[in-house]
Amino acid sequence: MKAKEIQDLIDxxxxxxxxxxxxxxxxxxxxxxxxxxxxxxxxETLPMAAPVAMPHPVAxxxxxxxxxxxxPAPAKEDSSRYVExxxxxxxxxxxxxxxxxENFVNVxxxxxxxxxxxxxEAMKLFNEIESEVSGKIVKVLVENASPVxxxxxxxxxxxxx
Length: 161
Description:
The protein is mainly beta. The protein has 2 helices and 11 strands, in the order αβββαββββββββ. Pathway: Lipid metabolism; fatty acid biosynthesis.
């Protein structure tokens, strides 16, 4: 199954009333569960040799991804007025369109709603992430080329800026 087909399946499940879908073939096993707004995808590649007897299902423990330790904000009141730009998917965060280019945005830059602020690579697809808010970039919360999780804050934006 190709990345585009998996993404189409996720979109279909998100828009349908289905809560869970499991697909098994000789080549892979795909399980998608819908929780609130975010679907969870688990893909296992099986060997192409002889059929494998599947053990009883066991709940998989969530995988923790190390993220940089957040630095404390100067004042709690000031940070509460900031808006977070969050990752809409799991993938690898990139601040530039390619290694030879400038960053999409830097601390102190003004952004407008709809402006591209970074790229997240997921399954060899590069997805431009756009700001949902206008304001000034106060802080970049993720290092370039770092893995990010769904709904992980990427930037802090001061909407008054």
